[in-house]
Write a structure and sequence with these properties.
CATH topology: TIM Barrel
Structural class: alpha/beta
CATH superfamily: Glycoside hydrolase/deacetylase
Number of helices: 10
Shape: globular
Number of strands: 9
CATH class: Alpha Beta
Number of domains: 1
Largest sheet: 5 strands, parallel
């Protein structure tokens, strides 16, 4: 992991020096959490997301849930997570980096073979707001090519920006490159492997924040998530939630009114 982070820093510094900043302004994704099982308020971000067709939630009002995982490196829990998803017939999207594809190609292949989506989390995980469009294009294309080499998924249309950082330029440029941003409406502090709090913590966090249409961000490095996932899925099913693929959400939004269900 340290080598990966060091390489990312070197790469980022190099591109900043060569390209200059893409834009001096940057936003870090965030929203106002609530425990009333309502879609969280994202304030000023809604206008810019709507402008570029980005997603953070399914606002249809239906009790749908979309599981997404960010995978920067493998900690030994992804196979267990995939086992649970397969057992419960639940689709997911895995947003991966180049380091992950290089270090765990067999897991990438398994994700695709079992019907999950691979999303683009960039190759080196740089802050997109400090590099230019050409550098972003290279990040995205290199990751897509790496995934295609080890699996049957040959193109990637969904993007989760590294670090959740974005601005008007990065949304515009990635749209022009054919990608759709996917943020999230439910998350908690699960990424620190040295500060896991037990599976009940993961269960409690999700149950407190869950709402119709939630796009859930989880990190596959979390032992808490791996141990809690089956119970979380089963409990949400009992509450009437249906687990869907992000493809279902995006295809539904692209269809003209009146065609859904035909």
């Amino acid at each position: 992991m340290r080598k990966f982070m060091a390489a990312s820093i070197i790469f980022l510094t190099l591109f900043v020096c060569l390209s200059g900043p893409a834009n001096t302004s940057a936003f870090g994704w965030g929203y106002k959490k609530n425990t009333e099982h309502q879609i969280p308020d994202i304030g000023k971000y809604k206008e810019i997301l709507d402008k570029y067709g980005a997603y953070y939630v399914d606002d249809s009002g239906e009790k749908n849930i979309y599981l997404t995982f960010d995978n920067g490196y493998e900690q030994g829990y992804t196979a267990e997570i995939l086992d649970v998803l397969k057992k419960e017939s639940v689709p997911a999207a895995f947003f991966v980096t180049g380091h992950y594809v290089e270090s765990a190609p067999e897991l990438i292949k398994r994700m695709v073979d079992e019907g999950h989506i691979i999303g683009n989390h960039s190759y080196h995980h740089p802050d997109f707001t400090v590099i230019n469009k050409d550098a972003i294009k290279k990040e995205l294309e290199t990751l897509e090519e790496a995934v295609a080499e080890v699996s049957d998924q040959k193109d990637i249309k969904l993007l989760r920006p590294p670090r959740g950082v974005f601005n008007d330029n990065t949304l515009k440029w990635t749209n022009e490159l054919g990608l759709i941003h996917v943020f999230w409406s439910l998350a908690f502090q699960d990424w620190n492997v040295s500060e896991q709090k037990g599976p009940q913590y993961a269960i409690d966090q999700i149950m407190a924040q869950v709402h119709p249409g939630a796009i859930v961000l989880l990190h596959a490095v979390s032992s808490d998530n791996a141990e809690a996932l089956e119970q979380i899925i089963q409990e949400l099913k009992k509450q009437g939630y249906t687990f869907k693929s992000l493809d279902d959400l995006i295809i539904k939004d692209l269809l003209p009114d009146g065609l859904i269900g035909l």
